[in-house]
Design goal:
By secondary structure, the protein is of the alpha/beta class. The protein contains seven helices and six strands; from the N terminus they run βααβαβαααβαββ.
C-alpha cells in the first residue's frame, strides 16, 4: 500500500503477527475469546516466525493475553537474539463471538442464517452475547494506541494478535469505515505497518514466506 501522508519525521515500525494455528482454526470454529491452545503445527509456525525475526530489534512486544497469542509470542521471542520484554494486553483479544464460540462456521450459518450473512456488514450487529464491530474496533484502537505511544522515534513494536484484530487495524489504515477489510490473514502471517505521526503505510500484508516447508 502506498504511503498515506507525512513528511520526513521519525517513523515507528510495527510488525504484526497473527497467532499460530489451533485445532479450532483447522476445524473452522469460531474461537473468539475462548482460550484455545496452539496445536503442534501452530507451535512450529511460531518458532518459524521467531527465526525470521531473529536479528530484529524491538522496543517491546505486545500480545493479547489469550493462550494462543501468548504462547506464539513466547516462542517467537525464544528464537530472537535480543528479545524485547513481553506485555500482555487484554484489549487486544479477539472479538467476543458470544454463543457462536466453539461452533463451526457452517453450524452458525445454519442456525443464524440472517445474522451470519449480515454480521460483517453491520457495525451494530452482534452475535448473541457477543460484541458489535463498533465495540470491538474501539477496544482494539485503545489497546493499540496505548502501546504505539510507548515506542520512541524510529523504534519498532512487535504485536502478536488475532485475525480480527489485524482486520480492525487494516480497516483503520485503509480508512474503510464500516466496510470489512478485503484481506485474508493466515495463522503466523506477518504484516508490517509504518507510522509517521497519524500518517501510515503498509510494507507487508500477510507475508508467509517463513512458513514454506512446514
Amino acid at each position: 500500500m502506498a504511503r498515506s501522508g507525512g513528511g520526513a519525521a521519525a517513523v515507528v515500525r510495527i510488525v504484526v503477527v497473527r497467532h499460530g494455528i489451533t485445532e479450532w482454526n483447522a476445524a473452522r470454529r469460531f474461537q473468539g475469546q475462548t482460550d484455545v491452545a496452539l496445536s503442534e503445527a501452530g507451535r512450529l509456525q511460531a518458532r518459524s516466525v521467531g527465526r525470521r525475526l531473529h536479528a530484529e530489534r524491538f522496543a517491546l512486544c505486545v500480545a493479547s493475553d489469550l493462550q494462543r497469542t501468548r504462547e506464539t509470542a513466547e516462542r517467537i521471542l525464544a528464537e530472537m537474539a535480543e528479545p524485547p520484554s513481553l506485555h500482555l494486553e487484554p484489549e487486544l483479544r479477539e472479538m467476543n463471538f458470544g454463543t457462536w464460540e466453539g461452533l463451526t462456521f457452517e453450524q452458525v450459518a445454519a442456525r443464524w442464517p440472517n445474522e451470519a450473512k449480515n454480521f460483517h456488514h453491520h457495525t451494530l450487529l452482534a452475535p448473541p452475547g457477543g460484541e458489535t464491530w463498533a465495540q470491538f474496533d474501539a477496544r482494539v484502537t485503545r489497546g493499540f494506541e496505548r502501546h504505539r505511544m510507548r515506542v520512541g522515534p524510529d523504534g519498532a513494536l512487535l504485536m502478536v494478535v488475532h485475525g480480527g484484530v489485524i482486520h480492525a487495524l487494516v480497516r483503520r489504515l485503509m480508512k474503510l469505515g464500516d466496510r470489512p477489510a478485503p484481506i485474508h490473514v493466515d495463522p503466523a502471517g506477518v504484516t508490517e505497518i509504518e507510522f509517521d505521526g497519524e500518517a501510515a503505510w503498509m510494507r507487508l500484508l500477510n507475508d508467509c514466506c517463513h512458513l514454506e516447508g512446514l
